Records
---
Amino acid sequence: SWSIFEDRILYQLLVFLLPPSRHSFRLELFCGTRLPERCSSIRVVLECTCLRTTGDIPCFVHPSENNETAQHSPLLQTLCTGSYLDVEEIACWVQNSVQTAWERLPQWQHWQLTVLPSSHCCQLLLSGPSDMQLCAVLVFAVEQGSP
């Protein structure tokens, strides 16, 4: 959605997170309520790939002959707390990635990107040569029932 407020255009974008290969997301309810977005967590489940034809891709769950321990998941190490997606880690990672990418875009040299502090979404403010500002709010979601 989008709206205009005084000298600022606000864009709100819903960003669906998809699990990478060899992972799946599982919604776990804790309150017994019908409002899962308020009382739930998204658990990251590592999938066994031992019986699949995956070439040289190691299994996260089981050790291989060459490696006596199971492989570590970059997703679990980067965007999770324990085995659960951490929205604060996701927001921080996206903010850092956008900031790094912005610095490599020379065509935007007349625009300034400001990452606004937020622990549950990613808020970006673009200020340009005019008085108009663009604000983008990225809200993260996982589609219920997706693999």
---
Amino acid sequence: IFKIDDCLITYLVERWRPETYSFHLPVGECTVTLEDLALQLDLRIDGKPVTGPTLDKSGNRIHLMYLPLLTDLEHAGRYSWDLACLAHLYREMCREIYPSSKKMGGCSLLLQSWAWYHMSFIQPTIQRDITFPLASRYGLFFIPL
């Protein structure tokens, strides 16, 4: 179980610039990359591309055409989900900057983990060893022993 820091996500959304797909922060301009996806979420960066219609506007559903890709989880691992995830995150960030937007879809976990990794001075301190991808390093996943 993990807790998303809504204040951090709001801070990042307020600094998102859709013209450049990047955050304009006091320390400079930066963005989430495919390499970040590989590091943060342990997603595959090679493999068959995931193509087709985009996700729905709420960010909570996937198009039915993707269900066959998920029926066999071993087969699903052969696809490159990184670009689909990144494109969806960028789209949601661009949509979220408008006042009429109510809730951001996309991968808040990725965004939070990315911020903690690249801005280490804001990351929480934890007292246990973790053997999961980088996102777990910051306590975003809790697995009872």
---
Amino acid sequence: MKVLVIGLGGVTNGGKTTLAEKLKNMLPNCDIISQDDFFKPESEVETDERGFKLYDVLDALCMDEMVASIRNWMESPASSGVMTEEPRNTCDNLKNVYILIVEGFLLYNYEPLNGLWNRRYFLTLPYEECKRRRSTRVYQPADTPGYFDGHVWPMYLKYKSELEENASMQVDYLDGTKSQEELLSYVYSDIIQELNKLRE
């Protein structure tokens, strides 16, 4: 049995969840873990002097739990309830390969996760497009006026620049303004190449 752990990180509203779901439908024995499932309760998330809830930082997340969930999956992917349907467009000898897609906005800035990735993707968006998309989404709790400019975007830039400064980190940056079909085609082909390497 072999496992492949794929990171799908990047900007808020960059299309991570959509891409992960589409990949899951196309890849054999594929499962998803979403970082959004590991937010601390609202009462435990810090508030800054402007009254902004600081959700876009590592401290807002139960990262230890997330690492444990990924490691548990890696130890026994078959017991995770992952579907072992006949893979489409892939070979029979991939039946003993399991793929985990971990999607979230802060995947590569947390040291305990860094040894787990087989491939890392990072979706980017320009400021205006990100702000436009964010304004169409409903969050709990809702974004307060100025929240995007005052917290969300600055934190994205901070963590992205940390990532870019880390020369040892191999990350494939993806343009989130491209069509979903284009992004899906690129990442799917790339993962199939990784699967073929595992088989060799």
---
Amino acid sequence: ETLTLLWSFIVSIYCVGGMIGCLCSGYLTAKYGKKKCLLFNDVVLIIATLHTGFSRRAKSFEMILIGRFLEGIGAGIHMNAHVQYAGEISPKRLRGFVNVTCSVFLALGKAVARILGLRDLLGTEDMWNVLLSFSGLVALIQLLFLPFFPESPPYLLLQKGDKAGCLKAMKQLWGEGNYHTEFDDMMKEKAVTKGTKIMNVLEVLKEPSVYPQLSTMLLLLLSLQLCGLSAV
């Protein structure tokens, strides 16, 4: 019974970390930018990987708990910052396509994890720590290549007010060209959002104007949980 309780806690602590990461992601991306958040997140995931990777050698379930908790925080931040960054650095004609690919690769990652977790592959007594550490490899690859990418143009213009940096980032991402249309769209967005207060979760829940959207989203998410996908 104690062992079952410990493993249940190890599984659940990931979701707790994910909730904390999601709640913090809005503030972090607005203050530090999506790129810095992703870099910080990669470091967190690598640290989490080291905890879970060495937990078997140290014979410490506490290390697994810490690692899973940190991985949850990383996943919560990543789910928001990565989608925003990928969409904002994409050319306008490809933005919708890129945003959709995030969901596709999320589902693909889950499928690959299920396959690797089979007892014939990495789901064995000797290899489970390698399976839990797999996400750190992806984080390491991103940590090596992401510094060569610029910060997203909308963040540079709307949050930092750096027009020159925004145009430089556009040219670096999309090549030489005339980006006055995109620049004007961002300036219009800045004018519309000027003075608008960023609401926290509780303030959003108390705002009557977003009730239809919240109801639709909750209905969709609750239906997803009840569709049998988790059981499958």
